[in-house]
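The instructor's notes for this session suggest beginning with a concrete chain rather than abstract definitions. Hand out the sequence below and ask the class to guess, before any prediction is shown, which regions might be ordered.
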Amino acid sequence: MRRTYGIDIDCANCARKVEEAISEVDGIESVTLSFVDKRMFIEVSDGNVDRFDEIEKAAEETAHRVESDFRMWRTDTVSECDDEKEKDTYLIPRICTGVAFLAFGLLLEYVLDWNIDGTVLRAVFLIGLLVVGYDVVVNAIRNLVHARFLDENFLMTVATLGALAIGYWTESVAVMLFYQIGEFFQDRAVDRSREHVKALAELKAPYATVIRNGKTQTVQPESVEVGETVAVGPGEMVPIDGIVTAGEGFVDTKAMTGEPVPRHVGVGDKVLAGYINTSETLMVRTETAYRDSASAKILALIEDSASRKSRSEKFITRFAKVYTPAVVLCALAIAVIPSVADPSGWKDWVYKGLIFLVVSCPCALVVSVPLSYYCGIGRASKDGILVKGSTFIEALSGIDKAVFDKTGTLTKGEFSVNRIEPEGMSETELLDLAACAEAFSDHPISKSIIGRLGHDIDPSRISDSSAIPGKGVEAMVDGRVVTVGNVRMMKECGIDLESEEDRSETNVYVAVDGKYAGRLVISDGLKDDAEDAVSSLKDMGVRTYMLTGDTEPVGKAVAERLRLDGYKAEMLPRDKTSELERIMSSSEGKTCFVGDGINDSPALARADVGIAMGCIGSDSAVEAADVVILDDSPSKVASSIRISKRTQTIVAENIVLALAVKFAILALTAFTDAVDMWIAIFGDVGVLVIAVLNAVRALRIPRGDARNRMSEERCGD
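After discussion, reveal the predicted structure:
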C-alpha cells in the first residue's frame, strides 16, 4: 500500500537526506521524495498496512530530526501551505538590502579608502550579512545541535564566518548574498516548471450539476452515479466521462490533449472529464464513476510520475553522498595540515579550505538534474503526452525501434461495413445473425456490425456466447450455432470458405451450423497523421514495425503505404509479445511498443517503453503503458522521443558543466594561488544558476516540433 504526501522543504540536498532517513524507518518498504514538485511517496508491505498511521508518525518524527523545518501532509486531507510564498516575499527585499550594504561597504573600502579594520566598515558588512543570511545561520545552528555538519546551511555559515575571522569581510557577505540569489533563481525555475504541469493537475471539476427528480443539485463529482445526467453550462468543466444527450456546441480539450482547436460535440458524442464547455449547455449521461474517469486517471498518472526516478537522478544522489564529505575532509586537511607545518601562512591555507567548503555544495547537480526531467515531463504534458516518470524520459531518448499495433493506433479504429456478401441467404439475414453473435463484444469491428444493423438486438435470442481472442465469436442465435470470425477461426472450426479472396480489406466470415454463410467486408482508414508519424521517426533514425491480428493482405497494404521497415499479420496477442521480443533482441538500442487495446497490454508491459493511446485506449493498456498519448495521435510518438532526447541532452550538459567547473576550481585551489573566493562563489552559485536556467530550456518546444506546428498553422490558414 502506498500513500502520497505533500511536503514543505526548501533544500534539495536536505530532501535527499530526509529521504534516506525515512527509508530506514521500520515497516517502510520504499520511500521516494521529489524536491521539485514537493511530493513524497511512502509504501509499506501488505503485512504493515494496519500500522500505516504509526509508521507515518515515525517517518515524520525521523524527518524532523534530520530537517527541523520539514512538513508533510496527506494530499487527500490537507491543502498545500503558503509558506513558500511567504518565504519569497521576504527573500527579495533581503537580497536587495544585502546588495545595498555590500555596495555601500565597497564604496567605503575602495572609493573613500576607509581602513578595512574600521568599526563603521565592519558594522556595514556585518549588518548586510545578518540581513541577507540570518535564516541560514539559524538553520546551521539547529543542524549543529542535531549533529548534522554537511548540509548547505552549515557549509555556507562556516565559510562565511571563517572569512570574517581571517579578515575577508567583503567575501563573507558575498558568499551569503550570492548563495541566497542562487536559492531565489532555483525557486523561480522550479515554480515555472510546475506551471506547465499545473493545468493538468487542475483537471478535476470543482462540482457537478446533477439532475435528480427533475431538479438540479450541485454535488461533488465523486457522488455522481453511473447513468445519471449532469448539466454542463458554458465555461464549466465536464465533471465525469459521458455521452451528450442534449445540446451541441464546442468543447475546449486543450488541458486534456494539448490540442488548441475546440472540438464540436452533439447528441451521441462522448465527452471526457476535463473538457471545458465553451458554448451552450450540454446534458451529459455519465458512463463511469469519477474514479474511473479520464481526468482521474490522468491525475493518478501525474502523481505516480514523480515516484519513478531515472538512473541519472539515482547516480547524482549516490554521488552527492560521497562528494560533499570528501570535499569537506579535503578542506579540513588543506586548512590544518599546512598551517601546522608552516604557522606563518595559516591564513592563506584557511582561506583555501574555505574555498573548498563553498565549492563542496552539490546543489547544482542535486537541483538541476531532477529539475531538467521535471521540465521535460512538463513540456510533454503540455502537448498531451503523459510520461510516467523520469526513468521513461531516459529510456525514450535511447529508442531506435518503434513497433505499432494497427487498429486504433495507425488506423482510426472507426470500422464500417462496406459490403455484405451472403451465401444462401439474404443480406439482411446474414447481417442480423452476425450482429446477434457479436452483441456482447466490445471490439470495434463488432460495434461496426451492430451499428450497421440499425436497431436494438433482443438478448433473449442469444445464448452460449463466447469470444476467442484474436479469432472471433461463437453464439447460439435462434437455436442455430453462428460462428463469426477471421480465416483462422473458420479453418479451426473446419468450415470451408467458398469465396475466400486476398483483399486489402478486412473480411469477417460468418458460418451457420457449421456451413459457410457469407462474409462482411469491413474497412478502416489510416489516421490523418500516420504517414507523418512514421516519416518523422525515420528522420530520427528510428526503425518502424507493425504487428497486427488482421489478415496478411490488409497488413501488407498498410505497411507498404506507410513504408514501414517490417510487419507481421494474423497475430494473436501472445504472438505479438514473442515477435516484439525478437525485434528487441535484434539490436542494442531500446524498443517502444505503441498500442491502444486490451490485447496490447502484454506487449506494452514487455517493451522497453510502452506507449498507449489514452483516450480510446482500454484501462489495462493505459495501466500497462509507460507513456500515454491523450489524443491518440501517432505523430506524438516522435514528439515524445524528441522531447526526451532534448531533456537527456540537457541533463548531460548540466552534469558535465557542474563537475568540470567544480573539479577545476578544486584542483586550481589545491595546487595554485589563482583562485579566490569570488571564483569559488561562481563555482557554487554561478554554476547552479547556469544549470537551473539550462534545465528550464526543456520547457521549450524542440525545433522539430516547432516546424511541425508552424506547418500545421499554415495549412489551417
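Then share the key points. The CA atoms of residues 105 and 121 lie 6 Å apart. The two ends are 52 Å apart (CA to CA).
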